[in-house]
Amino acid sequence: MNRAQIRTRARKIKLLLMDVDGVLTDGRIYYVPSPHGGMFETKTFHSRDGLGIRFAHGAGLKTGILSGRASPVVEYRAKELGIHFIQEAALEKLEPFEKMLRAAGLGPDQVCYMGDDIVDLPVLKRVGLAVGVEGGHEALRRHVHYWTRRPGGLGAVRETVELILEAQGKWKPILKRYLA
After folding, report:
1. What pLDDT does 44 receive?
2. What are 66-81's pLDDT values in tens digits?
3. Which of 110, 112, 116, 64 is nearest to 86 (CA)?
4. Is the pLDDT assigned to residue 59 strictly greater than 90?
5. pLDDT value at position 40?
């Protein structure tokens, strides 16, 4: 898909949905011993992705998480960033996706979904802007409209936000604020 076609799709986006492991994170999961016995899970998130999500919100986009795994760390990060929709523990993602669409009052063509693995394909094949991340499973490449240059967990979300906001004419005003 050429740049003009991608921009046309990006102009319609009102909701950015993201997988977590491999998209908002680099896909690695750390288990750390708990002082009370057992283990707890931790992940790393990139600050630029977080700032990109804040820029998206400031420009009027809604955001959401659609993840196959559940994690208190993800819930915390989502709350911290003000993410509007969150569905975890959804390896089968189509039904939760459709519920989010109804809750948001949007059509699939108004959604950008970012994924990195084959469990994301049912949603990627239905949205207006399907984004695969660098380092994602190769099977996604023929089903996405855009493949990021940045890997998951290292700026892929920010890159996608900038792509959408640029297409909607909202990126330059954000930059202008910081260049003044």
Report:
1. 94
2. 999 999 999 999 999 9
3. 64
4. yes
5. 87
Please check whether residue 124 is in contact with residue 19, taking contact to mean a CB–CB distance below 8 angstroms. no
Dihedral angle computed from the Cα positions of residues 26, 96, 80 and 37, in that order, rounded to the nearest 10 degrees: -70
Amino acid code (one letter) for 96: P
State the amino acid at position 152 in one-letter form: G
Please, what is the Cα angle at 122 between 121 and 125, to 5 degrees? 75
Each residue of 58-75: b (16+ CB within 10 Å) or e? ebebbbbbbbbeebebbe
pTM across the whole model:
0.95
| Structure tokens given for 170 | 């909202």
Read off the tokens for 168: 């909607």
Collapsed DSSP state (helix, strand, coil) of residue 104: helix
